[in-house]
Amino acid sequence: xxxxxxxxxxxxxxxxxxxxxxxxxxxxxxxxxxxxxxxxxxxxxxxxxxxxxxxxxxxxxxxxxxxxxxxxxxxxxxxxxxxxxxxxxxxxxxxxxxxxxxxxxxxxxxxxxxxxxxxxxxxxxxxxxxxxxxxxxxxxxxxxxxxxxxxxxxxxxxxxxxxxxxxxxxxxxxxxxxxxxxxxxxxxxxxxxxxxxxxxxxxxxxxxxxxxxxxxxxxxxxxxxxxxxxxxxxxxxxxxxxxxxxxxxxxxxxxxxxxxxxxxxxxxxxxxxxxxxxxxxxxxxxxxxxxxxxxxxxxxxxxxxxxx
Length: 308
What we know:
Layout: H1 37-47, H2 66-78, E1 86-90, E2 100-104, H3 108-131, H4 134-164, E3 167-172, E4 175-182, E5 185-186, H5 189-193, H6 197-254, H7 259-264, H8 276-284, H9 287-293, H10 300-303
Antiparallel strand pairs: 1-2, 3-4, 4-5
Helix pairs in contact: 3-6, 4-6
C-alpha cells in the first residue's frame, strides 16, 4: 500500500554526533571496495591465479564505480608483485603477418625502441653521404672501366676476325651489323648487286661464319654487363656493411646482456647471423646510389624499415 510522504520525510538527515569527527580532514579515506566482500574475495582469488586461460568478469549497474574500484584494487595488488617484463613487437621480414615478440626487462622496451629509431635515423643520414662520396664514385668507376675494357677487347677481336673474312662491323643505336667490305670500306647494296652469283654466294657463306662469331661475342658482352651489376651490388653491400656495422655494434654493446635482443631482434646483426632487417637494408641499398646521382633524396617508402 502506498501513502503520501510529508516534506520532512523527503530529506535524509545524519546525526552529526554519530560521526565522531569535526572535519573530514581527520578521516582516512577508504581504499577498499565497500560492502562487496564476496567480490573482493573473488578478485583476490582470480588475480592470484598465475596460469593462463582464466578471466575475471565484473558485473553491476552503470555508475556504481566498477571500473574505478577494480582498477584501484588491481593497482594496489600490483605494488606487491614483481615488475612485469616489457614486451615488444618487431617486424618479421619473412612473414609480415606474424610479427616477432621480444621479452625485455622492465623499462628496457622504451630504451630499445628509442635505440632502433636512432639506428634508422643514423643510417638514413650516413648512407646517402657514403654513396655520394668521391671514394665510392672512384671505386665504382674502376669496376665499370675494367669491365668496359674487356668489352672493348672482345669487339676489337671480333673486328679483326671480320676483316680477315672481308667484312666490317658497324655499330648503331639498335645493334651491331655485319657489312661486306673492300679494303676496309663497306659495300653498299648497289655494289653488292653488281657482283656475280659466285662472289655473292661466297660472301654469304663467310658472313654466316662472322655472324656466328658476332653472336658469341654479344653473349659474352651481355655476361660482362651482368657482371657490372653483380660487382656494383657487391661494392654497395661492402660500403653499406662498413657504414652500418658501427651502429649495429653500438646496439650490441648496449644490449649485450639481453639474449632476446641478441638472438631474436630483426635489427641487430650478431655474430650468430645477420638479422632480417640488416639483410633487408643491404638489399634495398641498391636504391641509394641512383637517387644520390640524380641529386635527390632516396624514397622513404622504398627504404623504410618497420621496426616496432
